[in-house]
Amino acid sequence: VLRERDIKKAIEVVKKYISELRDRKTPFKDLIIWKTLTKPIEKYKVKTAHVEAALMLKKAGRSLSLGDKIGYIITLNGSKLYEKAKPYNFASWDEIDLDYYVENQIKPAALRILEQFNITSEELN
What we know:
The protein has 125 residues and is an alpha+beta fold. The protein is built from four helices and three strands, in the order H-E-H-E-H-E-H. It has helices at residues 7-22, 49-59, 81-84, 98-114, and strands at 33-36, 69-74, 85-87. The chain is elongated, with a radius of gyration of 17 Å.
């Protein structure tokens, strides 16, 4: 948008990214969400996606400490976000929640700019 000043082209680029994701052409590594452990796992009072992924890693024998970066994928399993999180090295393409990535990652990032031009989420479908 900023370089070419072409809103229609910007919309097409976003649609292309969404289409590539749905067709599983997006590199798996681009779907990994990274968060840092800011305190020991047992000190977290609220269940969050990265802490649940960290607990899975710990259960699998990985040693974790303050400051470790936890990479996870959002899967189709579960209803709450923390239930859907899975360490990226335990996840496969077949279980990835593609709608989550479209609605909570791609669209919000694009709309931060495109909303300034009165573009809605529906126009990105």
